[in-house]
Amino acid sequence: MSKSLKYFFGLFIITLLTACGFQFQNGQLIPEVLRTLNFESANPYGDMELAMRKQLQLNNIQLTEKRSDVPVLRLNKTTFEDKVASVFKQGRKAEKILMLEVVASVRMPNQQTYPLSVKIRRTFFDNSRAALAKSAEKEVIMNDMREQAARQLISKMVALQHQTQ
After folding, report:
1. SS3 state of residue 160
2. Could you give the 3-state DSSP secondary structure of residue 123?
3. Residue 127 per-residue DSSP state
4. How far apart are CA 100 and CA 129, in angstroms?
5. What letter does residue 164 receive in the DSSP assignment?
6. How many Cβ atoms from other residues are within 10 Å of residue 51's Cβ?
7. pLDDT tens profile 41-61
8. What DSSP assignment string belongs to 59-122?
């Protein structure tokens, strides 16, 4: 009896620890005024723009065509940069720091603009001997960084609730 009780207690603790991730559920915390948006960007079919649209849809934010009574979310600039963090003895790049910066703004119907910016950094071990595998791994990391940046922009939109009132 004691052994099975310990097993169930251990299983309960593991379940509790693995289920502690926090995410917004269906955009419940997003201010009512921002639940319908017009989304603008210089490149409407870019990777960051697609990730942003996906996150907006996951948070039940409706995207509309250009209307004057709806706030406008605009992605102003997306920059990706990688810097060498360490090198091998032979002088080849060993590790890189990947940086993604997204600058956006929300323009309310009263023409007041609120700037938003996000910076995401990741490290990447670059082995030139496995170039094809590392290229695919880098693309996966970059997609994850875009998703994280989109989630953080939505979180910053939630914080606008105090400024808009």
Report:
1. coil
2. strand
3. -
4. 26
5. H
6. 21
7. 988 889 999 999 999 999 888
8. TTPEE-SS-TTS-EEEEEEEEEEEEEEEE-TTS-EEEEEEEEEEEEEEE-TTS-EEEEEEEEEE
Q: For residue 37, what are its two tokens?
A: 């948006």
Question: Which CA distances in Å does 133 have to 78, 137, 140, 160?
Answer: 26, 6, 11, 41
Q: How many CB atoms lie within 10 A of CB 153?
A: 23
pLDDT in tens, 30-40: 778 888 899 99
3-state class percentages of the chain: helix first, strand second, coil last, to nearest 5: 40, 30, 25
* Per-residue confidence (pLDDT) for residue 24, from 0 to 100: 46
What the block records as the tokens of 45 is 């079919």
As a whole number, the mean pLDDT across the chain is 84
pTM here is 0.77
Residue 74, φ and ψ in degrees, nearest 5: -120, 125
Pairing of strands 72-87, 62-63: unpaired
